[in-house]
Amino acid sequence: MQTLTPPLVKTEGNGLAVLFYMPHCSYVAMYGVNAEFNDGCDSFVNYPTPTIPILEYLKNDLDLYVRRSVANHVGDIAKDNLELALNLCERWLKNASPELKWVIRHAVRNPFKKGNKSAILLRKLAK
User: Fold this and answer.
1) What residue spans define the domains of the chain?
2) Averaged confidence pLDDT in the chain
3) Considering the entire predicted model, what is its pTM?
4) SS (H, E, C) the chain
5) Cα→Cα distances 103→24, 39, 95, Å
6) What value does the mean pLDDT take over residues 39-66?
7) Residue 20 to residues 24, 53, 102, 104, Cα–Cα distance (Å)
């Protein structure tokens, strides 16, 4: 199988070399075919903000599979950085399309289930 993206550089530490290549492979990575991308994401658990531009770029993608991946990534951010995820979703809510509203509702589903008041409000506003 031929590679569609440039090879990623393995990094130690914060994964910035992986981020450097992400704009070229983020779409492919969202489809889960780039194992090296997935290996690099572990370093973003404590410092997820470098992934936000990629989420911004893909949040309105025409493909539901990609939008679902964006929502799941925001949901993962919410596990360790709830305020960051909620702020991101709140910002996205302004002028959101019905598809983006679905992304927001899906992204905050776990904090919603736990009774987080901000997540409850976001899901209500994203109907």
Assistant:
1) 1-44, 48-125
2) 77
3) 0.71
4) CCCCCCCCCCCCCCCHHHHHHHHHHHHHHHCCCCHHHHHHHHHHCCCCHHHHHHHHHHCCCCCHHHHHHHHHHHHHHHHHCHHHHHHHHHHHHCCCCHHHHHHHHHHCHHHHHCCCHHHHHHHHHCC
5) 23, 24, 14
6) 79
7) 9, 12, 29, 26
Residue entry with tokens 């709830």: 82
Place of tokens 């309105």: 60
Q: What percent of the chain has pLDDT over 70?
A: 65
Nearest to 70 by CA among 91, 42, 90, 99: 99
Tens of pLDDT, residues 69-123: 999 999 999 999 999 999 999 999 999 999 999 999 999 999 999 999 999 999 9
